[in-house]
From TrEMBL:
It comes from Spirosoma liriopis. SUPFAM superfamilies: FAD/NAD(P)-binding domain, FAD/NAD-linked reductases, dimerisation (C-terminal) domain. Belongs to the class-I pyridine nucleotide-disulfide oxidoreductase family. This is Dihydrolipoyl dehydrogenase. Its cofactor is FAD. Its main location: cytoplasm. It catalyses: N(6)-[(R)-dihydrolipoyl]-L-lysyl-[protein] + NAD(+) = N(6)-[(R)-lipoyl]-L-lysyl-[protein] + NADH + H(+). One of its GO terms (molecular function) is dihydrolipoyl dehydrogenase (NADH) activity. Its EC number is 1.8.1.4. InterPro entries: Class-I_Pyr_Nuc-Dis_Oxidored, FAD/NAD-bd_sf, FAD/NAD-binding_dom, FAD/NAD-linked_Rdtase_dimer_sf, Lipoamide_DH, Pyr_nuc-diS_OxRdtase, Pyr_nucl-diS_OxRdtase_dimer, Pyr_OxRdtase_I_AS. Keywords: Cytoplasm, Disulfide bond, FAD, Flavoprotein, NAD, Oxidoreductase, Redox-active center. The gene is lpdA. It is found in: Cytoplasm.
Length: 466
């Protein structure tokens, strides 16, 4: 007889393990199925280990510029690439063990193997030895995440043409690297490798790097990366990669004609695709549209008892989105009162390169296209006492308000540690805070966060420090 649960979650990433914990908290007998390591891609191969790599790169940059802070470091500083990679893997391993602890603490059964949903609210799990076991649940949540997108013209071989997982475990730092795509993954790895001495080239198909960001942010990042020595080609497309030689010969169509680049390694960072193949969707009859599982606002699929959260659904492919969806999904299943659908226009996006990028809400272009009359303010960190003292005056804060009602439409930051600042704007927008109220909220001095108030003053024509 099949083992029976109230909730079975297929996948243990930041959507899956959060769903399992919340279900257990609400009194449901819960199991989570994981084919690899608890924590999924985020904890093991994404969010966490990349931040460890980025921190090592940042520390190395500080050492190289220690004289700017009045500190003399004798001898030539060097980055031990192997040790950097080892530290990153250690951080990831410790976080995965933390999820193991949370599973035990919350009395959640962890089932190792590959899950496949079946009709009748059942799941088959194939273990490493090939044994198949059937499980049943009143509610089955699909949280199988995503993987690197493969471009038809750039097949990934795992050696010369790699994706992000290989990029964080290379045994040797390449002398040259070409990055295809300038989203968060692309620009973060570009910074890691460039700061450690690799010659990096970025190829972006769209007109701007980090193309989902406000255009002012994109321009500032491109300026800072060029100072770092990164070559950037926008409105450009990789048409072919020849790996027959010792390295890679990359053919790129640019606005100025075709160019070729000889590099050691190519990193394909052209986004992610959902892991929805071979998990039983067709057999169950679950609807899919453009590579994503179709759900309602509470993550119910068209088949009763089956749900989907995270990268397999239409929302932004971000860890914190998956976690928020998980809680909404479970609380609706449990019959909790006043469960609100997620507002996808108030999701913060963060990119952890140097300088960091953080944003939420409308870009200026999108707000104008939506018909708003705007009040827009910018405050450069060159005018911030905290940023100057920290030796990181690059970047700015940009805020966007509706001129008629003062609604906080969006905010866009680029600079040191700005990913720690964006939550203020997210909370303010959730609480329907106006620009006038931001002006009256006292911000501590000296801090980076007071630049939000300074930018708001600029938007309202009341700038004190500009």
């Amino acid at each position: 007889m099949a083992a029976q649960y109230d909730v079975i979650v297929v996948g243990s990433g930041p959507g899956g393990y959060v769903a399992a914990i919340r279900a257990s908290q609400l009194g449901m007998k819960t199991a989570v199925i994981e084919r690899e390591s608890l924590g999924g891609i985020c904890l093991n191969w994404g969010c966490i280990p990349t931040k460890a790599l980025l921190k090592s790169a940042q520390v190395f940059e500080y050492i190289k510029h220690s004289a700017d802070y009045g500190i003399t470091v004798s001898g030539e500083s060097q980055a031990d690439f192997g040790a950097v990679i080892k530290r990153s893997r250690g951080v990831a391993d410790s976080m995965s063990k933390g999820v193991q602890f949370l599973m035990k603490k919350n009395k959640i059964d962890v089932i190792s193997g590959v899950g496949k949903v079946k009709p009748g609210k059942k799941v088959d799990v194939t273990a490493a030895d090939g044994k198949v076991t059937e499980y049943e649940a009143k509610h089955i949540i699909i949280a199988t995440g995503g993987r690197a997108r493969q471009l038809p013209s750039v097949p990934i071989d795992g050696t010369k043409v790699i994706e992000y997982r290989k990029a964080m475990t290379l045994e040797k730092r390449p002398d040259s690297l070409l990055v295809i795509g300038s989203g968060a993954i692309g620009v973060e790895f570009a910074y890691v490798y460039a700061s450690m001495g690799t010659k990096v080239t970025i190829i972006e198909f769209l007109p701007n790097v980090v193309p989902v960001e406000d255009e002012d942010i994109s321009k500032e990042l491109a300026k800072q990366y060029k100072k770092l020595g990164v070559d950037i080609y926008t409105k450009s497309e990789v048409t072919k990669v020849d790996t027959s030689g010792q390295g890679c010969k990359v053919f790129v169509k640019t606005p100025d004609g075709e160019k070729t680049f000889d590099v050691d390694v190519v990193l394909s960072a052209a986004g992610v695709v959902a892991n929805i193949e071979n998990i039983g969707l067709e057999e169950v009859g679950i609807n899919v549209d453009r590579g994503k599982i179709v759900t309602d606002d509470y993550y119910r699929t068209n088949v009763e008892g089956y749900y989907a959260i995270g990268d397999v659904t239409k929302g932004q492919a971000l860890a914190h989105v998956a976690s928020a969806e998980a809680i909404i999904c479970i609380e609706k299943i449990a019959g909790q009162p006043h469960v609100e659908p997620l507002n996808y226009n108030n999701i913060p996006g963060c990119t952890y390169c140097t300088p960091e990028i953080a944003s939420v809400g409308y870009t200026e272009k999108a707000a104008r296209e939506a018909g708003y009359e705007l009040k827009v303010g910018k405050f450069p960190f060159t005018a911030s006492g905290k940023a100057k003292a920290a030796g990181t005056p690059e970047g700015f804060v940009k805020v966007i308000f509706d001129a008629k009602y003062g609604e906080f439409l969006g905010a866009h930051f680029i600079g040191n540690n700005v990913t720690e600042m964006i939550a203020e704007v997210v909370a303010a927008r959730k609480l329907e805070t106006t620009g006038e109220e931001i002006l009256k909220a006292v911000h501590p001095h000296p801090t980076m966060s007071e630049a939000i108030k300074d930018a708001t003053e600029a938007a309202y024509g009341e700038a004190i420090h500009l």
